[in-house]
């Protein structure tokens, strides 16, 4: 009965207010939990990401796949932090008085922004497979973007709400950068969790199959094994002793992934987090192996800039850090909605199967966006 009587935040009204005032803010729900946390930055200052500062105010890290001149990563400072714990004393009227109004600016420079046609995609995958077979490359994660109709910002909460309902075990997020762009997603992949008193954890996640398919194929098992060995080596290089789980399957909407967890009862000091995160990111699950060669090939081959897709994001405070890979995500603006999906290309990849896998990954998000954008 306590849960039924407990007050909860009016998330819809808060998101609408933040969007109308054009302030930078974040809203998220951790995997397996029910409550949404919202953080609002009341200034237009662009704070850099700094995981070494244990005393920084609570906030949210939002980092791109690869830094560019127009996309360097942001720390959204939570000048106002709201959760169900504060709902009892919450006042929307007071919040309206605390949040400034920032006038709309010209949109940020997105850079290359091209949705690749199927025939071009199939040809590119064929070339990548040939290159992998002829060189030391073992895997390249090639992504594509799928465009959908624009979503009125008044409907953003509706989309966010459905993500919360459809993906109970994902990290569901909504991030708005003032004067720039808005992103939503439901990530199945933890990059790093580091909570004093609770310990350290990371996950090696890779391989995708439809939920209804019972068995894993050779390609998917080998793909996940590459990521597992990579994470194992990084942790060893960083002198982090972690217990490794057996391989297991995790369901994320209409698809499943293979996972291996690495955990330690001892949390890392904040002074080490930047180094460890830099070593892990980007993992072979979103980039490839060897990392540098795969990264360069991605930047040369993909006809768009990934920006925050396949970067990492999550809440940061003196009480701990939880970072997730920005997957199953989409970017919203006044002109269109862009869904980002990718697949791991190996020597055994079939271009048509890879295309179908990206369609499968995108379908549930596209259904949500289409139904809630009307």
From TrEMBL:
<feature type="domain" description="Chorismate-utilising enzyme C-terminal">
    <location>
        <begin position="118"/>
        <end position="361"/>
    </location>
</feature>
<dbReference type="InterPro" id="IPR015890">
    <property type="entry name" value="Chorismate_C"/>
</dbReference>
<dbReference type="InterPro" id="IPR005801">
    <property type="entry name" value="ADC_synthase"/>
</dbReference>
<dbReference type="Pfam" id="PF00425">
    <property type="entry name" value="Chorismate_bind"/>
</dbReference>
<protein>
    <submittedName>
        <fullName>Chorismate-binding protein</fullName>
    </submittedName>
</protein>
